[in-house]
């Protein structure tokens, strides 16, 4: 009886809609703000997005590029404004200025030559206020939307809201 009830509930719920890159563009935060935007396909299995965070007048913008299968990520800071002295470690660039990192990423994508992920990190890193390469243990929203089959053991992305 319980099995039949669960089966009826599961079938009446209908299919789950696939996540889109547009749905990944969102603003979160209870203290300050966190805004993820401009989710895009960079190449096969690679996505990018822009993150802007602001807390009490200290604000940063970064371009994040993720290789979905491996979880390898480039995090390149493209702007930093400070109210708290030293927040930007002496490297400031107004958020209102054009995003040099996004422009360089576009040049890499439009280039006819093939680049390794590490070469891409070097190219966009030169235009940044600071760049790092790391690894994500969780699936990102962009990867869940564009390449869900490339999770490869990473924790599944779950849409959360903190507003």
What does the secondary structure layout of this molecule look like, with pairings?
Elements: H1 2-12, H2 21-24, E1 26-28, E2 33-43, E3 46-55, E4 58-67, E5 72-81, H3 100-110, H4 117-126, E6 130-135, H5 141-146
Antiparallel strand pairs: 1-2, 2-3, 3-4, 4-5, 5-6
Task: Characterize the structure shown.
With 163 residues, the chain is of the alpha+beta class. The protein has one domain (31-150). Helix content is 26%, strand content 31%. It has five helices and six strands; from the N terminus they run H-H-E-E-E-E-E-H-H-E-H. Strands 1-2-3-4-5-6 form a six-stranded antiparallel beta sheet. It is globular. It starts with a helix and ends in a 17-residue tail after the last helix.
Strand line-up across the major sheet = 1-2-3-4-5-6
Total number of helical segments?
5
Main sheet overview = 6 strands, antiparallel
Distance between the first and last residues' Cα: 40 Å
Helix/strand-derived category reads alpha+beta
**Morphology:** globular
Q: How much of the residues is beta strand, in percent?
A: 25-35%
What is the residue-mean pLDDT, rounded to a whole number? 84
Q: How many β-strands, per DSSP? A: 6
Low-pLDDT ranges = 1-16
Assign a percent range to the helix content: 25-40%
**The number of domains:** 1
Radius of gyration: 19 Å
Q: Write the element-wise H/E pattern from the N-terminal end onward.
A: HHEEEEEHHEH
């Amino acid at each position: 009886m319980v099995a039949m009830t669960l089966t009826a509930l599961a079938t009446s719920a209908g299919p789950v809609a696939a996540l889109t890159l547009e749905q990944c563009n969102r603003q979160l935060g209870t203290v300050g703000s966190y805004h993820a935007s401009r989710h895009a396909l960079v190449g096969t299995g690679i996505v990018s997005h822009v993150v802007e965070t602001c807390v009490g007048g200290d604000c940063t913008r970064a371009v994040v590029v993720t290789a979905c299968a491996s979880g390898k990520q480039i995090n390149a800071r493209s702007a930093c404004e400070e109210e708290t002295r030293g927040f930007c470690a002496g490297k400031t660039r107004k958020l209102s200025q054009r995003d040099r990192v996004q422009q360089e990423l576009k040049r890499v994508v439009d280039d006819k030559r093939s680049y390794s992920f590490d070469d891409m990190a070097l190219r966009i890193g030169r235009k940044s206020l600071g760049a790092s390469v790391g690894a994500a243990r969780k699936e990102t929203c962009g990867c869940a939307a564009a390449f869900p089959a490339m999770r490869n053991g990473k924790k599944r992305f779950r849409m959360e809201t903190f507003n």
